[in-house]
Amino acid sequence: MKEILIVGSGAREHSLVWKARQSSSVGNIYCAPGNPGIAEIAECIPIKATNVEQLAKFAKQQKIDLTIVGPEDPLAFGIVDHFKSQGLRIFGPSQQAAQIESSKIFAKNLMDEADLPTARYKTFKPKEQGEAEDYIECEEIPIVVKQDGLAAGKGAVVAESKSEAKKVAKEFLDIGIPIIIEEFLEGYEVSLIALCNGTQYFPLILSQDHKKAYDGDKGPNTGGLGVYAPLNFIGAEEAMKLYKIVTDPTLRALANKGIHFRGILYSNVMITKNGPKILEHNARFGDPECQTILPLYDGDLINLIENVLSSDFDQIPFKWNGKFGHCVVLASRGYPSNPETGKIIEGIEDAIKIPGVLIFQAGTKIENGKLVTSGGRVLCTVGIGDTLQEAAKRSYYAASKINFDGKHIRTDIGKQGLKFCNYDSEVDIV
Ligand code: AMP
Ligand code: GLY
């Protein structure tokens, strides 16, 4: 039986542990550092996800057969290179390959060199504030200002005025962070997630995240407040076309630079009236895409990853269960800028009893014997159903049963997909 280590502490990692538990070849599962929800189904180890050396020591001591990395920071710190240097088996890209997420400038330059579809852009270094302002002055609004480097999904600002764009650019440049200023793209977003080894990959079903804090795609960007999958308005053939336009050439462009990408390539794509355009690439599972998609995969997660690691792509079954997943994130008041914490969470026991519902925890901790909030995205409810409508009803019903002071959810997750369901009357998703 295999010993598994999963690195991270969010709802994404909770779902990875939950799915790995169902694998017939798995013995013990450890999660570092994990959270109280994960502790119910795995052994949590108090080592930070970024403490690469301690994690490798633990993996050696415990004779871990496979480590799966959830978040981006350990990848950017080189966890995969370090584990490999110690002879440890790990799934994730090298530090060099993870630059596709850890440096937006690297990613944009790669897209440029390989002529991949993306928004028109220009990059500016900290000393180039004047040039950045001149550029903004000549461009149309809205305009997007992005910081280079990792920002937990919150490093892009869509500025509605030139003065706002200049202010944001100055804030980043003043603290020494290079920026990208890019054209605002109109359309709808799609998440493409592929398990890759070099230029070969296994594509997951398409999903759609909701990044903005409030209903109607208003407010600041967040890490993502809800996802549904698959997308009922994009057929399987169309979906494969998207992977061919986005994932194939990206992996080839990396290979041409001598970079072998082994791990997850998650591309956030805007479907515009001029076709798909890549907004960004990530080197890991999307969160909350992961917790929405994994329950729809009927195959064995550990076998899947093992097959990808050994390039046995022919062995991987396309085992989707034909159901829909719908995920609602319960966030804290003040998220994303200043989330309140320490609020008592109630109702999980009732919510978990609802048929077709899964609950994955993220920003939670135990304080004085009680489960309390400890971060911006607290937990998520995932509804599984034969239709998107059924899945949405389940996740929203579960979300209504769970309470904490300042609970914030978006009430329009899946709106675009729900328009395509066969309704006699108005869509009622709450
Ligand atoms: P990123 O961190 O680059 O994925 O950006 C986060 C979010 O900002 C995306 O999911 C989009 O909602 C929005 N965004 C980023 N770039 C653009 C763009 N060029 N045009 C419109 N929206 C964008
Ligand atoms: N779903 C957004 C992210 O994982 O960055």
TrEMBL record:
Enzyme class label: ligase
UniProt xrefs under InterPro entries: ATP-grasp, ATP_grasp_subdomain_1, PreATP-grasp_dom_sf, PRibGlycinamid_synth_ATP-grasp, PRibGlycinamide_synth, PRibGlycinamide_synth_C-dom, PRibGlycinamide_synth_C_sf, PRibGlycinamide_synth_CS
Domain ATP-grasp: 108-310
PROSITE patterns: ATP_GRASP, GARS
Enzyme Commission identifier(s): 6.3.4.13
Pathway(s) per entry: Purine metabolism; IMP biosynthesis via de novo pathway; N(1)-(5-phospho-D-ribosyl)glycinamide from 5-phospho-alpha-D-ribose 1-diphosphate: step 2/2
Cofactor: Mg(2+); Mn(2+)
Alphabetical keyword list: ATP-binding, Ligase, Manganese, Metal-binding, Nucleotide-binding, Purine biosynthesis
Molecular function GO labels: ATP binding; metal ion binding; phosphoribosylamine-glycine ligase activity
Catalytic activity field: 5-phospho-beta-D-ribosylamine + glycine + ATP = N(1)-(5-phospho-beta-D-ribosyl)glycinamide + ADP + phosphate + H(+)
Protein name according to UniProt: Phosphoribosylamine--glycine ligase
